[in-house]
Amino acid sequence: xxxxxLVNNLRSFLPPEAVLYETEDLRPYECDGLSAYRQLPLVVVxxxxxxxxxxxxKLCYATQTPVVARGAGTGLSGGALPHAQxxxxxxxxxxxxxxxxxxxxxxxxxxxxxxxxxxxxxxxxGLYYAPDPSSQIACSIGGNVAENSGGVHCLKYGLTVHxxxxxxxxxxxxxxxxxxxxxxxxxxYDLLALMTGSxxxxxxxxxVTVKLIPLPEKAQLVMAAFDDVHKAGNAVANVIGAGIxxxxxxxxxxxxxxxxxxxxxxxxxxxxxAILLCESDGSAEEVADEIERIYAIMQQSGxxxxxxxxxxxxxxxxxxxRKAAFPAAGRVSPDYxxxxxxxxxxxxxxxxxxxxxxxxxxxxxxxxxxxxGDGNLHPLILYDANQPGELExxxxxxxxxxxxxxxAGGTITGEHGVGMEKINQMxxxxxxxxxxxxxxxxxxxxxxxxxxxxxxxxxxxRCAELGAMHVHRGEDKFADLPRF
Amino acid sequence: xxxxxxxxKATIRAAAEQETPLQxxxxxxKDFYGNSVVAxxxxxLDATAYSGIIDYEPTELVITARxxxxxxxxxxxxxQKGQMLAFEPPYFGAAATLGGCIAAGLSGPRRASAGxxxxxxxxxRMLNGKGDDLNFGGQVMKNVAGYDVSRxxxxxxxxxxxxxxxxxxxxxxxxxxxxxxxxxxxxxxxxRMNQWxxxxxxxxxxxxxxxxxxxxxxxxxxxxxxxQLKLGGEELRESEIFWRxxxxxxxxxxxxxxxxxxxxxNPTTPPLNLPxxxxxxxxxxxxxxxxDEKLNAVTIHKAAKDAGGHATLFRSNEPGVxxxxxxxxxxxxxxxxxxxxxxxxxxxxxGRLYPEM
Lengths: 484, 357
Description:
The structure holds 2 protein chains of 2 kinds.
Chain A: H1 3-11, E1 19-20, H2 23-26, E2 43-45, H3 50-63, E3 67-70, E4 87-90, E5 97-101, E6 106-109, H4 115-122, E7 127-128, H5 141-147, H6 154-157, E8 164-170, E9 176-180, H7 191-195, E10 204-211, E11 213-214, E12 218-226, H8 229-241, E13 248-253, H9 254-264, E14 274-282, H10 284-300, E15 305-308, H11 312-323, H12 325-332, E16 335-338, E17 341-342, H13 348-362, E18 366-371, E19 376-383, H14 390-407, H15 423-429, H16 432-445, H17 460-469
Parallel strand pairs in A: 2-4, 3-4
Antiparallel strand pairs in A: 1-2, 5-6, 6-10, 7-11, 8-9, 8-10, 12-14, 12-15, 13-14, 13-18, 16-19, 17-19, 18-19
Helix pairs in contact in A: 9-12, 13-14, 15-17
Chain B: H1 2-18, E1 22-25, E2 43-46, E3 53-57, E4 62-66, H2 71-80, E5 83-84, H3 98-104, H4 111-114, H5 117-120, E6 121-127, E7 133-137, H6 149-152, E8 162-169, E9 171-172, E10 176-183, H7 186-197, E11 203-209, E12 212-219, H8 221-231, E13 234-235, H9 239-247, E14 259-264, E15 277-281, E16 286-291, H10 297-306, E17 310-315, H11 329-342
Parallel strand pairs in B: 1-2
Antiparallel strand pairs in B: 3-4, 4-8, 5-9, 6-7, 6-8, 10-12, 10-13, 11-12, 11-15, 14-16, 14-17, 15-16
């Protein structure tokens, strides 16, 4: 089917404003939050109902047209990068909160509903939706499901996968699956877990039932400064070793501290090599108890300066600096590239040392913010895209950081997803056998490979070519790889 | 240890070649649960040999152990460091293994507040039906590289692969734990449990039976005592024994000759109007029913579905009744496709989950 026929077909059941095909109309959809990758789709569709999506999928299936789903487009791994020969399926217009059941503590929402909008809508019942990715004012719940988004509170409250109950999913053939239930488990395989984080490769989510939890009575924050990153890392281990699961545990390194202090003046210690923000939430009694213990542990761990927030305004001010880390990076550098590795926490100091070495080697500065409780590291590489070759050096530097995370026993992505961005590093993290199983899982849902083709899981061919380029320590990692 | 894996691999590869089914079995404590492996001529694949804790670092909140490790050994190691498996898996016998716990996917009384088995699984090493040695997930809390195959293994009853190693997130044990009990009508109890679950209270388990509601509170001493004042009721002595009897189903309610049904449903569902003795857990989300001849599977499946959930014939004396809740055709199609991808020869515990696969 020619592009024009496809557009005409789509316009036969969608209103004119829901089918975009002129280049200037397509332009806003050419990239997601990772703007280094850009591609115009053939056509963008903006359905408002599940019924319309079914028709779109049936048409795409019949014509073997690729489909890329997109939520709010805030993703950081190029997961929603359009396909040149494909339809970009925006779910942004499905933005209704369908039902809230405060007693059962669940809300049924459409995929385009913003993450924060859910918490705002249910606050009146003393409830909220726990996962809070930094983009929560803009990112959509459908995108959160696709990426299994986390946030700063996920050590205690879990990721998206821990906080959803049910999905309505359309297969590429337009068939509707109800996965999960209003219950805490469901019959058969755990497809709810499989769908979560599947990056739009298995199906199109048209409805999400999320779990709501009670708003904590109180939250309080301890800010501790350290003259050494190792000491800060040990302090995190000491808090957790003492049986405390903090609601949030964030670390910033020196360059980040300086960047945000200059930007927002939250009152961070400029002499510190690292700052920890450790939050406790719960009942007033619990928080008082925990804060006292955290304070003492920070002291014993060698903190040079400790303060506990004395009121809500102060707590928010301490947080503001951390939350402004990305914009602060944007202020000190024309461009920055955000990485997302996770490591076992005990290797933090080594990995930070390694990043510092690479930073010197590549001549590029790097700010490090760290979800310290769960080991999720966000190095922000500062670069200038207008300098020839700097983006390429940045990407290579980033790739090296991810490989270091793998060697430390961690992973290339904690919460941003593989998308287009980290597809090469998947060849390092997984062997042929696992990659084959990923392709098999995909084929069980989408045999013709029309959903978000080319993302998340590299072809064996691609890995073979990369493998030939990087032979690690003289050993061929893909010795048993079929070559074709 | 690699020799054991090589042996498992050889067994699986031989079975795949000859298309003879395998019955993968750990401690055998959950043989009663699910369907039997369909084929009579199946070969037993004993999964207990590959055992032992591989890595445990309390400050990382992660433990990695071989699937044949006894749950009791695993929990003893955690206990020594003041930590626990927060999902309180039932053992149903001293021989219970980690692999069996993951494959069965059952969680205990703390599930409604702390999460389920799958919520705590971080990674697995497994053999698929071709005998390929595969690693999914990892040892870190956050990991979105590749599809979440590790969690897919939870509750799959060994039909997708043989588990070799599992990494789990663990949590500190609460400092204080007390149990309150109070007399209450069933409808009121369900409403109260749900109201309380929507408040910041440290309730870690609930159980309702015969007009009596039991609440377990866990956390910091101060928080538990403050909640006790808000909730009222009497404090139950030796409550640990009580919760163990619920977790392990040694409580009198479960000692019946009748079939035992497990209904996992919307927690706010009023007491089910079915002619059966009932015990309620998980703030109303889990209902145990003792069936008799008046109660057939169709009625129960419908009641569970109407209440937003599903029903399992947990312990049965009646052969021929579908044990797991029937799947919609679309879902069954995906299940069969996944089974076919992981186990192309259909040799891993065939029929154990559903007769079709």
